[in-house]
Write a structure and sequence with these properties.
This protein is of the alpha/beta class. It has helices spanning about 10-25, 60-75, 95-105, 120-130, 145-150, 155-170, 195-205, 230-245, 260-270, 295-300, 330-335, 335-350, 370, 385-405, 410-425, 425-440, 440-450, and strands at about 35, 80, 105-115, 135-140, 180-185, 205-210, 250-255, 300, 305-310, 325. It has a 10-stranded mixed beta sheet. The longest helix has 18 residues, at about 385-405. The protein is globular.
């Protein structure tokens, strides 16, 4: 079984408690899953790293890691992920950290790494401890291009490839950990997709994941290197070659952030009479209106300096941390103002069922990607295959919506009803916006009295 952001480790009672917390607007005792970004230290300098502007040389001290684990195990923690702006395997006491996780009966659901720090001793610990998945950010097909993308000496590429091969050999027939080799496409390497595929396939990877590099904060990447929907025809032949190479093997996984490029993959599937995995499936009980984020009820990220975030997608210099795990008890942060506000705002978006829109000043903890539909795949891609969960969540949300979205009730209930009405009737929304735009006094009154923007 590969990593699932910890979802596979949950028990029925965990899922029921999660649904009840969302429905009732109450805080869970603690996270069920925890991402420990053990260190901000990294041995590479990827030009596309979205965390380069928050990177420090700090790491979570081993004793503090143990304290966090002990406290969160007591409140229901089931699994951890090791990742981060630095490479988790470069924590100075990484082997002790892995032992501490295993000693507490926790599952390491995923490790995301560039692979250079995967020593033979550490690889054996991961295999023996039942780690679900190791994802290697190899990103390209040979040493010169690796040096270009990761901004390091080319010789590192061969060392990483050797480490991947060693881990695969240790896994044997058990195939655990699940080995994922990830490649990222830009205009400098997209023509070599099939070479990437063959490299990972020959190494014995369980999954060959292909994606594109996307923009990062502060416009750090020159637009000329990024692939866009306008490049879809240029990408057709390289992708076709890789899909043909994968025929009958089922190793290839493609889930682009741009729908235009995913449509190209679907066209190639039809043309070639084959299918390409996206890595995720959707249950028949899943409804888009219930597919918004609930990470504030489920998980948290702790960075190398202790700063806490809702998820890895928000680790950037423009997002204010919700707390710091170096300060006091972990529970004080999980139950603190930052996470309480996050949970309240996530619940409002879930209740809105697609009617919510991100507007400047409206949300204190949610970004446009958190609110707007289909803007962030991490919202539910790991969970949407859970048929029973999305059936029960849908039932619970429908019941809450009937009670809490009303034209006759509190100001908040009326605000929710007006929001839903505007979403269902675009002409009414345009008329409202026109009146509000022309009359600042009306807009101010609506915001002050009805929380309507």
């Amino acid at each position: 079984m590969r990593g699932s952001h910890g979802w596979a480790e949950l028990r029925d009672g965990d899922k029921r408690a999660l649904i009840d917390s969302v429905a009732n607007g109450t805080a869970p005792r603690g996270p069920l899953h925890l991402e420990l970004d053990l260190t901000d230290r990294c041995n590479v300098d990827c030009y596309f790293c979205n965390q380069m502007d928050v990177r420090t040389k700090e790491q979570i001290p081993y004793d503090r890691i143990v304290a966090i684990l002990d406290e969160t195990v007591g409140t229901g923690l089931r699994s951890v992920r090791l990742a981060g702006g630095g490479d988790p395997l470069f924590h100075r006491e990484i082997e002790k950290v892995v032992d501490a996780i295993h000693d507490r009966g926790l599952v390491i659901d995923n490790i995301t790494t560039n692979g250079l720090g995967l020593t033979p001793a550490l690889a054996k610990k991961l295999v023996d401890g039942g780690t679900r998945e190791v994802l290697f950010s190899l990103n390209t097909f040979d040493a010169p291009d690796y040096a270009r993308m990761m901004q390091v000496k080319p010789a590192i590429f061969d060392k990483v490839v050797t480490n991947i091969a060693h881990l695969v050999s240790l896994c044997g027939k058990a195939r655990q950990p699940f080995v994922v080799v990830q490649f990222l496409l830009d205009r400098g390497n997209y023509t070599r997709v099939v070479d990437m595929y063959r490299l990972a396939s020959n190494l014995g990877a369980d999954v060959v994941a292909i994606n594109t590099i996307t923009e990062i904060p502060h416009e750090r990447i020159h637009p000329s290197i990024l692939l866009t929907p306008e490049d879809r025809e240029a990408m057709r032949a390289p992708l076709r070659e890789a899909i043909i190479a994968d025929r009958g093997k089922g190793l290839l996984q493609i889930c682009f952030p741009r729908q235009e490029l995913n449509e190209l993959v679907r066209e190639l599937e039809t043309e070639l009479g084959t299918s390409v995995s996206t890595g995720f499936t959707t249950a028949d009980t899943f409804r888009d209106e219930n597919g918004f984020c609930f990470f504030g009820y489920y998980s948290a990220v702790v960075r190398g300096n202790g700063d806490m975030y809702p998820c890895c997608m928000l680790l950037n210099p423009d997002y204010k941390p919700l707390g710091n795990a170096m300060q006091g008890r972990f529970e004080d942060q999980w139950q603190g103002t930052g996470f309480k506000t996050l949970r309240h705002e996530m619940r409002e978006v879930l209740l809105a069922g697609g009617a919510a829109e991100h507007q400047p000043g409206r949300f204190a903890t949610l970004t446009p990607e958190c609110v707007n539909a289909h803007a962030c795949g991490l919202k539910n891609m790991y969970f949407r295959s859970d048929r029973d969960f999305y059936r029960d969540l849908g039932t619970a949300l429908d019941d809450v919506r009937r009670k809490e979205i009303r034209f006759f009730g509190s100001r908040q209930q009326l605000a929710r009803a007006l929001q839903k009405l505007k979403h269902r009737h675009p002409r009414l929304k345009r008329a409202y916006e026109a009146v509000a735009h022309r009359s600042p006094k009306v807009r101010a009154w609506l915001k002050r009295n009805l929380s309507v923007r």
